Amino acid sequence: MLVWLALTFALGIGFWLGGSPLDGVLAVAVWLGFTLAFHLYHLAMLLRWLTHPVAERVPDGFGVWHNVFMTLYRLVRTQSQSKRKLTNVLERFINAGEAMPDGVVVLDEFDRIEWLNPMAVEHFGLDRKRDVGNLLLNLIRQPGFHSYIKADSFSQPHILKMVQPRELVLAIQLVPFDSTRKLLLSRDITQLERVQTVHRDFVANVSHELRTPLTVIGGFLETLSDMPDSDPSALRQFLPMMMEQSRRMQTLVEDLLALSRLENSPKVLGTEKVNMGELLDTLMVEAEGLSQGRHHIRLDQVSGSWLWGSAQELHSAFGNLVSNAVRYTPDGGSIRLSWADDGEKATFSVRDDGIGIPREHIPRLTERFYRVDRGRSRNNGGTGLGLAIVKHVIARHQARLEIVSEPDKGSTFSVVFNRDRIAEPDAKV
Ligand code: ADP
Q1: Global pTM?
Q2: Fold of the CATH domain 273-423
Q3: Which CATH architecture has domain 193-264?
Q4: Residues 354, 363: Cα–Cα separation, whole Å
Q5: Cα(281) to centroid of ligand 1, in Å?
Q6: Does the CB atom of residue 259 touch ligand 1 within 6 A?
Q7: For 52-165, where are the alpha helices, taking DSSP H only?
């Protein structure tokens, strides 16, 4: 600036002394005009750049403008670098939020939705475009939800049962995160709730099953202890009934243990080769023993194939099917066992012409303690666990259970094994 002033002054004085004062004034005027044009030119460059301020296109200039443009360039570069960094951080946060397996909704101070992730859309049936800016409480109208959102304490999650868009049990929690905003987190606990319900029902069922025999035995013991002198004839009368009840408890406990073993042992079974001919003979002997000559029992069809699997588990599953056929077939009825193999699949089936099962009960038969007729099952020594055991065993052998039944006509229970379970019989020695 000083140099420029000195130059202007020197130019004016020089022309004045070398010519006339007018020459001095004219020279200064020309010089000032030139300077003005110089600055206007650079100013125009600056203005043009400002309309598209891209760091890489900052113009270059002469003199003082060179310094101005260089400083500007450095400033813009630093700014765009930190902007890029911020954008990256923000993007990472948004991506993390989007990928979260839990639902996340960001709420403003009035509980209006600011942002939500895809899982929240799935949990609450919200729309990411339409619902942003709307009051959350107008969109989720569930009993208890309103009071939870309006409450001051959010330390405990709230359990929310959703019906729309689908039946879900959600654990939701509000987390205030700056002076005004809140995060609403939601976790799908439907499966957990279902498991807990099954567990609760199971404990209730077991207790119920044990209570009856225990009450009966307790009642007999009380009666006996109330008798002044133990009456041998009363004892003779009560003892078989007490033994019957204790046998019932024992069977129940054995079935429970069998189920628990199946549920807790590893999935992959040993590759034992099961001689189906021998197993069928054993099943036949057991069926005759249970029936005591009340039924016509026969082996219908026997393939020579063996099975890869667990002999003990298969015996238990097939034995349950045979025992059911005997127990649910009135005297004089017939029961047929068969073992067939068509090269693609092998099928073990038990057919009876007993009481049959109404169609609506069939899908639930393998549930623990599910019985069509509770009284009938108990009277013939059933625990309600037989088919649950069958289901587990066949699942462990990748087989499937097929049930065909008609009331008063009879039932056929078939266990169908895949080709890779079929084994060649060992050579006879
Ligand atoms: P349970 O010990 O009561 O027999 P299961 O689990 O073995 O229990 O069978 C469940 C229910 O399925 C039985 O209570 C009975 O109602 C029905 N069921 C099973 N097998 C037969 C069958 N062969 N004929 C008629 N009903 C059957």
Answers
A1: 0.69
A2: Heat Shock Protein 90 (3.30.565)
A3: Orthogonal Bundle (1.10)
A4: 19
A5: 23
A6: no
A7: 64-99, 118-124, 136-139, 145-150
